Amino acid sequence: MHAKKLRAQGRFVRSNLPNSIEYYQSQGIKLKGTGAWRDALCPFHQDTKPSLRVNVERGGYKCMVCGAHGGDVLAFHMHRYGLGFIAAAKALGAWVGGDE
Ligand SMILES: [Zn+2]
Question: What are the Zinc finger CHC2-type domain coordinates in residue numbering (predicted)?
Answer without folding.
Answer: 40-93
